[in-house]
Amino acid sequence: MLAKELKPGTVVVFEGNPVLIGSMSVQSPSARGAATLYKFRGKNVMTKYKVDITLKGTDVIEEADFSRRNVQVMYSDPTHIFLMDQENYQQYELPLEDVSEQTPYITEGLEGIRALIYNDTCVGIDIPVSVELTIDQCDPGVKGNSATSRTKPATLETGLVVQVPEYIKQGERVKVDTRTGDFLSRA
Q1: pLDDT (0 to 100) of residue 145
Q2: 66-126 CATH
Q3: Counting beta carbons within 10 angstroms of the beta carbon of residue 143, is it exposed (0 to 12), middle (13 to 18) or buried (19 or more)?
Q4: Given this model, what pLDDT does residue 62 score?
Q5: Which part of the chain is CATH 2.30.30.30?
Q6: Contact criterion met (CB below 8 Å) for 122 and 114
Q7: To the nearest 5 percent, what fractions of the chain are helix, strand and coil?
Q8: What is the 3-state secondary structure (H, E, C) of 130-146?
């Protein structure tokens, strides 16, 4: 695959490791005859470290033997999370430290979780961009403070603490962005 054909979300083999491309930028040449450079920022799927890749548009890079499978969370114990493929019922297990960024958003019955499979091994999970969670605890709003857009901390059902507008009450369901951890809207 040519470097100029790469898109965010593609998994390529770079220096022998699978890298999930996250973002890209194009740097046009300032001199006549110079090549356009494509700069990619990705994450090594195995080690979870950030990787920066700079290629010319005509450079060839190998696409990884990589797939995404729809899975369902079966259960978790203190060290691992156990997943089941929804098509062939194959089971996968991942150490909790490998998915520590996603666990505050995972609830029982969450739809849209996808396992990242590299060489028939589960190396991580993808969760939806936004999830709906219930507020377990938050302070009541003070009457008269609604003229300004002030926020207050709210503890969600998974233990995650998010800043929500003052008019949100305990027990309500809210949408949260899983990439940033920010409040999006009422559910």
Answers
A1: 55
A2: 2.40.50.140
A3: exposed
A4: 86
A5: 3-63
A6: no
A7: 5, 50, 45
A8: EEEEEEEEECCCCCCCC
Please provide the CATH number assigned to the domain covering 3-63. Answer: 2.30.30.30
Mean pLDDT, range 46-70, rounded to an integer? 85
CB-CB neighbours of 167 under 10 Å: 13
On whether the CB atoms of residues 71 and 92 are closer than 8 A, the answer is: yes
Radius of gyration of the chain (CA): 21
Instruction: Judge whether 117 and 131 are in contact, CB under 8 Å.
Output: no
Are the C-beta atoms of residues 22 and 41 closer than 8 Å to each other? yes
CATH superfamily of 131-186: Nucleic acid-binding proteins (2.40.50.140)
* pLDDT at residue 146 is higher than 70: no
- Residue 156: what residue type? L
Structure-block tokens of residue 63: 């696409």
Query: Residue 164 gets which letter from DSSP?
Result: E
pLDDT in tens, 59-116: 888 888 888 899 998 888 899 999 999 999 899 998 888 888 888 998 888 889 998 8
Q: In what order do the strands lie in the sheet with 130-138?
A: 161-165, 151-156, 130-138, 173-177, 183-186
State the span(s) of the chain assigned CATH 2.40.50.140: 66-126, 131-186
